[in-house]
Amino acid sequence: MCIDIRTIEANGVVEAYLLGRAVANMRVDEQAETLLAGVRDALESRNLGILQERFFGTEAALGVLRSKRAGIYGDFDDGVEPAWLVVPEGVKGPIAGVQVYAVGGGERPEVISYQNTPCGRIVRANGRQCLTLSGLGEPAVGGRAEQSKRMFEKVESVLRQAGIDMSSVARTWMWLEDILAWYDDFNRVRNDFFVGHGLIAECISRRMPASTGIGVAAANVACAMDLVAVVGPAGSIEYLEAGGKQSSAYDYGSAFSRAVRAVTPAGKTVYVSGTASIGADGKTTNVGDSRGQIAATIDNVRAVFDEMNCEDSDVVQTIAYCKTAEIEKLFHDEYAELGWPWITVISDVCRHELLFEIEAIAAVAD
Questions:
Q1: Which residues contact 19 (CB under 8 A, 6 or more apart)?
Q2: Most buried pick, 134, 137, 153, 318, via CB within 10 A?
Q3: Alpha-carbon span 45 to 361, nearest angstrom
Q4: Which residues neighbour 364 within 8 Å (Cβ) at sequence distance 6 or greater?
Q5: Three-state SS for 73?
Q6: 105: domain CATH number?
Q7: pLDDT value, residue 22
């Protein structure tokens, strides 16, 4: 079992990014037990509390992980469910991996709830607040567009309970079942919501979070959202709407910034949105060429990091989304020495011709 841990620390506060990948050729119950124990031991040895957590795997493997998680985690299970994200079996088997964002050295994360159900956490440190939500969706409320509208309304309610609003949201993840069938509808819902909440307006700079919208299904819903919100001094969130080698995604209908820099408990965090082989004109490049799309995507991500003054050594988490098992294997074979901590999952990307996408996080201590 591989548990990769990257940390930043300032003023006695630690932010930690844990990434766990399963070992191939093990039974799924053994994979689950080893992965969960590895996360628990990493948290315990560093006196960390979980802020956000997500698991990727087949539906059956997620069921095994869910059944074992509380017993293995012990006191680290505070009642907040991670995002359970269903993906096909990949090169590592039925469990693709786990990502955990954790903090230590200050106050323990406080659980926040919606209608008496724990759904996220908030931590306060160094005069800053960081709030996370995981896997929020609204099942059985109509079609996909209606579910996405209700999802945004639910997120807004949770944020309001915590005394903040959408302007504090730095990063979102949109887990969208069968994305290619309804991504345009989802974008219309998101755009309308952002306009209605002042994040998109003609008279001010747009304040769109960094985001990933990807064809990964969350359990039992057509769409679900994870997010990170931050509250701190003025200027705690900086938006790179267009950057690197790409123009604004809003120009072709998607309301997200290419990257966001946010002040977090121990430093500054750069969230690079889901990035693919898309040129400055908004058109897909390297159509039909998986190797070319992988190379162009990494080049686009690095260009954003350059603009945000981040080095490869600052990268703390990465996910590579691969259209097919063959593309996943190609990435593993040719980019094993990339140096970024990553997991790979098989999923559709937001256009039929897109074969590969990367999202990444970099963090620098104060």
A1: 3, 4, 5, 97, 98, 99, 100, 317, 341, 342, 343
A2: 134
A3: 23
A4: 8, 267, 268, 269, 270, 310, 314
A5: helix
A6: 3.30.1330.40
A7: 83
Domain containing residue 182: 2-365
Provide the whole-model pTM: 0.97
Separation CA 41–CA 72 (nearest Å): 10
* pLDDT score, position 71: 98
User: Under a CB-based contact definition with an 8 Å cutoff, are residues 300 and 278 in contact?
Assistant: yes
Range 170-194 average pLDDT:
97
The DSSP code for 74 is G
What is the domain count for the chain? 1
Q: Residue 208 and residue 190: Cα distance in Å, rounded? A: 10
